[in-house]
Write a structure and sequence with these properties.
Two copies of one chain form a homodimer.
Chain A: E1 13-21, H1 31-43, E2 48-55, E3 60-67, H2 70-78, H3 80-93, E4 96-109
Antiparallel strand pairs in A: 1-3, 1-4, 2-3
Chain lengths: 121, 121
């Protein structure tokens, strides 16, 4: 079951774009476990709508998380476990990163195809 | 010289989030050449600010392009070569995709570090 691209409600909603650069050929220093935990924890938050995350062999990654409103983004930012993960990310895991908070104004997507695995929709 | 994450002006500006799913293990059917051409062509457009693009081994990709305003996004959408690339993308290259147009309200980034390759800044 694939949810990529994420299935989202009609706009408006909010997105947090998070590009990050991991060291090329970095050992697994706890990063993968943290990333999986943050993904699962985000999905439990009130106002969470979905996420998409990709990292390539160069260590370039983009994660986009989607939220009902800015209050939901602020609450997630204040989550204590997430605060600690960001602190370790800055000091240990990422060479470089950016965070961009935006309001999604409009969206288009592929029409569902009968041959595609779209789950129970 | 790395420009990942992209170096961008202060918000507000606009972002186009484009997640796409390529077939797993797809042959190179002209897709790579088209993607490189579209990236270069976008960078020539008035109002273009930057882009970030990542694709992983599963065929999941996220490209985010950044623009001065919505008029610049509309002009790029109407570019004839880009129209043709989107048509081929829908019919040949992508299993699934979405486009999300958003207004970036605020942004944060890593402080430049003396040991990082940030180019001539």
């Amino acid at each position: 079951m694939s949810d990529f691209p994420a299935h989202l409600p009609e706009p408006p909603y909010y997105a947090v774009i998070f590009p990050s650069q991991r060291p090329d050929g970095a050992p697994d220093d706890g990063y993968e476990a943290m990333a999986a935990r943050m993904s699962a924890l985000a999905a439990e938050q009130d106002g969470y709508l979905g996420q998409e995350s990709v990292r390539d062999a160069r260590g370039h990654g983009i994660t986009v998380s989607y939220w009902r409103d800015e209050a939901a983004i602020r609450a997630w930012k204040a989550n204590a476990e997430h605060v600690e993960a960001r602190r370790r990310g800055r000091s240990e895991w990422y060479l470089d990163w950016a965070i961009r908070v935006c309001r999604v104004e409009r969206a288009y997507a592929t029409e569902p195809r009968p041959d595609a695995d779209r789950g129970a929709i």
